[in-house]
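User: Please predict structures.

Assistant: First:
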Amino acid sequence: MLIRYKKAFEKIAMGLLSFMPNEKDLKKLQQTIKQYETEDNWQLFLWKEEDIIGLVGVVIDNEDIEIQHISVNPSHRHEGIGKSMIRSLKEIHSDKSLKPNEYTASFFEKCENELE
């Protein structure tokens, strides 16, 4: 289930974000989390089953939602969680088109092919 990020989940979110290739540095991670906390059009969602095991971060404008970050706990990869997060985002924002950024493009394209 996709849930909105709350400050209480900061450590978990930072841990999941650290799996992104461009988020290895602690200062960069802290800046990214701050951006999701302070900018209205930056939204962070967490995937919760029994525990929080995935994360997807987006920037929303008038027509589009750009996926900035998508990450799944390594011990839960290849279970379709990333695809489920993208599917849920499409349902929540059915009036907008979903598109990847340079870091999420290859994963997004793989999901698109499997979701069609």
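Second:
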Amino acid sequence: MIRHALDLGITFFDGAGVTGGVDQLLSEGLGDRRNAILLSTKIHLGPDPAPFSDMLLANKASSWVARRFGLVCSAATVRRRVEQTLKAIRTDRVDLLHLHAVSPRQYPKAAATILPELRRMKDEGKIRAIGITEGFLTDPGHETLRAAVRDAGIDAIMVGFNVENHSAADLVLPRAEQAGIAAIGMFALRGLLNSGIAEDLKRIAMEARISSLSELAYRFSRHQAGMDVILTGTGDPEHLEKNIAAVLAPPLPAEVLDRLRALTA
């Protein structure tokens, strides 16, 4: 899948650090084409789950507990996780390193203690850009990212944005664009197929002669002002090709956008 994506012209790949278990696959899949792409990955802010720091489940649990209770690990722990990530990906730098799923309770501590350490690592050349991802399902009003773009101490944000919840168009993206902060859209399709408005969306797509709900969703997110990259996740080559075609399609007609916004107002 990774090599097929490369052959199709994809130049942005997003891993998940020690909480996702995909960075090693990215390293193997990219091979000697590593320098042809931008590599993004993440680290979580939970306490070090020693002696299980290399275990996926332990890191996921640590990340969840930290978000819930507003805990933030030490700067030294973050540095060690970055070094672990570099080793896993077999590279000398990460193009974009995100603090992952930072909760509103975590953000002030992270801004005060963790971001300065990441900036030092950026000066050392181990990180090219610093980002923050939000916990979209638990922070649908984008409280964390609203604070982050206001402070303007980062280079990129990963923001939840889709037909059902497009509030970032008003609350986050204009300020990010003004501050020169890149915006990476996630959740363009995830969750929509099982949402309460799925059938209405399919009907709108059909009446507008749009091939699928997926195409409708990707075209909606991709052409939002201030959005720079749209993430797509898939395990099937044909599905990937359809998603790319949707992202490359023109903006949705104005009358379709009006129907979508009325549906989700």
